[in-house]
Each structure stands twice: as structure tokens, then as C-alpha cells.
């Protein structure tokens, strides 16, 4: 599993350098995201082996504290601009709730488990207090799915379902940009999106069609997008990770992004941790994939590190075998 992860993440970095050299792009953002995920995953594997309960609990507290302490992640007046702060907050809160639930499933002490479940519920309440309705729904959804995961005995079909859900959400922005959704649902989706979002997605699809091989180059979407140029506060991104990969790195970039998500799900399906732990992490990471598909969550280093950290914690092999502990 680790070899496959190294190959996938390494290929993402190499392809970003190749497309940047061919199109005079700026690969720093992609390289930083790859490094953040790899570093978080390595730390998660180490901490999950040494402290399978305390490490995810501390990660949950850190993630929730970060959304409160860092104003650029918390929703505010700047949500009206397509900068992605709302999505980053919701994604980080979903990952934090997932970490708290993973810690609860790993604990054998009833009092500690109850406290960790309350922590997950408190994270959802924190999202509501911050004004992040999407974050509240995401954190509460992760908590409910985690409780339901306790009744699942075979994780394979459940992980496959998460992969299918991620694929469907990934296809949503492309369908919206090309007007492929039915009129009723399509109108509802477009009404809930910021005014410029559909235009950004349309520009990304057009670039992907024109430069399907190598893309326009990493970091060049903002200067080539007519919609982005007209924005008062442009950030140079289409606010959809799959569409950004397609526009800036071509078909291979999209394939590598999908391969990274599939590798994480495969690692969770083969994880030595208990099934509820693996499925809880899978639900939280699928929620992140949804936010990344329709927003700008992966542009925030804290979110990328959190994703790698949760994946590492949920796939680590504790030094003291979990099954043996439960049997004792």
C-alpha cells in the first residue's frame, strides 16, 4: 500500500513539473499540496502506531481549534467572493469530526469513548456557531455515518460505495458547466452556486478540451480565464480540483488525481484497524473530495495536511494489536 502511495504521489509531482516545463507554468501549488498530503500521511502512520486513540483525538481538537483561531478559514463576509474559505472550513471540520470518531472507536474505556463522541458532536456545534451550515451538516453526517459503521461487518462494499459517491460528485461540476443536468435539478444546483462559479467551470472545461494532452500549465488558469479576469478579487482557480487538473494538466492530471483518491480508499479497505475506524475515515475523506470537487478546499495547506493525517491514522498498525485488545 505504501509503495503504491509513493508511486501515485510521486507521479503527481513529476507530471506537474512536466506540464509546467512544457507550458511555462508554475507548479509550486501542486507540489506543496503533494508534500502536505505525504507529510500528513507519514505523521499519521507514526502517531497512529504509537497512540491509536490519543493521536486522532488530538488531531480533532487541533483541527477544530484551527478553524476558530485562523480567521481566513472561518466563514465571514468574504464568502460572497469565490475564494473558497467556506469550503475549507467545512472540509477541516469534517476531517476533525472524523478524527474524533476514529479515536472513539479505538478507545476501550467507556468514559473516554463517550467523551470523544461528545467531541465529535461539539465540532458540529462549533461549525454552527461559526455560521458554517455546510460544515455543520458535514460534521454531523460524518458522526452519524460513523455510528452506523459499527454495524458493518464487510468494509469492501462500503468502501466501493464511497468511491462511487466520490465519482458522482466529481462529475457534477462538469455536468453543470456543460448544461447536462436536467432542467429542474440543474436550476436548483445553479441557484445555490456563487454567480461566477459556473463561468469558471465553463472556462476550465473549454481549456481541457482545447489542451487535453498537457493542459495550459499549472497555475495559468487565472490568466487565461475570461471569467477570472473579470472578478474583483480573482484567485486564479476554477474552484473545482478535477476541473483545475483537467484544465492545467490535461487528462493525465485528472487520472492521477483520481488515482490518489482510489489509493486512499484501497488503503482503508486493507487497513489493520477496525472496520468502523476505516469506514469513518473514508466517509470524512469522501466529504473532503466532495468539497474539493465543487470548491477550493485543497488550496489550503491545513486541509491537505489534515487529509493525509487522517488517512495515515486510519491505516496505521498499532504496536499493540487492536483485535487482541478487544478480545482481552
From TrEMBL:
<dbReference type="InterPro" id="IPR007016">
    <property type="entry name" value="O-antigen_ligase-rel_domated"/>
</dbReference>
<feature type="transmembrane region" description="Helical">
    <location>
        <begin position="275"/>
        <end position="294"/>
    </location>
</feature>
<feature type="transmembrane region" description="Helical">
    <location>
        <begin position="250"/>
        <end position="268"/>
    </location>
</feature>
<dbReference type="Pfam" id="PF04932">
    <property type="entry name" value="Wzy_C"/>
</dbReference>
<feature type="transmembrane region" description="Helical">
    <location>
        <begin position="29"/>
        <end position="51"/>
    </location>
</feature>
<feature type="transmembrane region" description="Helical">
    <location>
        <begin position="57"/>
        <end position="74"/>
    </location>
</feature>
<feature type="transmembrane region" description="Helical">
    <location>
        <begin position="86"/>
        <end position="109"/>
    </location>
</feature>
<dbReference type="GO" id="GO:0016020">
    <property type="term" value="C:membrane"/>
</dbReference>
<dbReference type="InterPro" id="IPR051533">
    <property type="entry name" value="WaaL-like"/>
</dbReference>
<feature type="transmembrane region" description="Helical">
    <location>
        <begin position="157"/>
        <end position="176"/>
    </location>
</feature>
<keyword id="KW-1133">Transmembrane helix</keyword>
<keyword id="KW-0472">Membrane</keyword>
<feature type="transmembrane region" description="Helical">
    <location>
        <begin position="6"/>
        <end position="22"/>
    </location>
</feature>
<keyword id="KW-0812">Transmembrane</keyword>
<feature type="transmembrane region" description="Helical">
    <location>
        <begin position="300"/>
        <end position="319"/>
    </location>
</feature>
<protein>
    <recommendedName>
        <fullName>O-antigen ligase-related domain-containing protein</fullName>
    </recommendedName>
</protein>
<feature type="domain" description="O-antigen ligase-related">
    <location>
        <begin position="122"/>
        <end position="257"/>
    </location>
</feature>
<feature type="transmembrane region" description="Helical">
    <location>
        <begin position="115"/>
        <end position="145"/>
    </location>
</feature>
Amino acid at each position: 500500500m505504501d509503495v503504491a502511495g509513493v508511486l501515485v504521489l510521486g507521479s503527481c509531482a513529476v507530471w506537474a513539473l512536466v506540464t509546467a516545463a512544457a507550458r511555462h507554468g508554475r507548479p509550486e501549488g501542486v507540489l506543496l499540496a503533494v508534500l502536505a498530503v505525504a507529510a500528513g500521511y507519514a505523521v499519521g502512520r507514526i502517531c497512529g502506531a504509537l497512540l491509536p486513540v490519543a493521536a486522532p483525538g488530538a488531531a480533532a481538537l487541533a483541527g477544530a481549534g484551527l478553524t476558530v483561531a485562523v480567521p481566513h478559514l472561518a466563514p465571514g463576509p468574504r464568502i460572497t467572493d469565490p475564494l473558497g474559505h467556506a469550503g475549507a472550513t467545512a472540509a477541516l471540520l469534517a476531517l476533525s469530526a472524523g478524527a474524533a470518531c476514529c479515536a472513539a472507536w479505538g478507545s476501550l474505556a467507556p468514559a473516554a469513548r463517550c467523551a470523544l463522541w461528545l467531541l465529535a458532536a461539539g465540532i458540529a456545534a462549533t461549525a454552527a456557531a461559526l455560521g458554517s451550515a455546510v460544515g455543520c451538516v458535514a460534521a454531523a453526517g460524518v458522526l452519524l455515518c460513523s455510528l452506523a459503521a459499527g454495524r458493518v461487518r464487510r468494509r469492501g462494499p462500503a468502501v466501493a460505495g464511497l468511491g462511487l459517491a466520490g465519482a458522482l460528485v466529481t462529475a457534477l461540476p462538469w455536468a453543470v458547466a456543460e448544461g447536462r443536468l436536467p432542467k429542474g435539478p440543474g436550476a436548483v444546483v445553479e441557484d445555490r452556486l456563487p454567480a461566477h462559479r459556473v463561468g469558471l467551470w465553463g472556462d476550465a472545461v473549454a481549456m481541457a478540451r482545447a489542451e487535453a494532452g498537457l493542459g495550459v500549465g499549472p497555475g495559468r488558469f487565472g490568466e487565461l480565464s475570461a471569467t477570472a479576469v473579470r472578478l474583483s478579487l480573482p484567485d486564479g482557480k476554477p474552484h473545482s480540483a478535477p476541473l483545475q487538473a483537467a484544465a492545467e494538466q490535461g487528462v493525465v492530471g485528472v487520472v492521477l488525481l483520481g488515482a490518489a483518491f482510489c489509493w486512499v480508499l484501497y488503503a482503508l479497505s486493507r487497513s489493520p484497524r477496525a472496520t468502523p475506524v476505516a469506514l469513518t475515515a473514508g466517509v470524512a475523506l469522501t466529504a473532503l473530495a466532495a468539497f474539493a470537487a465543487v470548491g477550493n478546499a485543497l488550496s489550503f495547506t491545513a486541509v491537505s495536511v489534515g487529509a493525509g493525517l487522517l488517512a495515515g491514522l486510519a491505516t496505521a498498525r498499532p504496536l499493540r494489536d487492536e483485535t487482541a485488545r478487544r478480545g482481552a
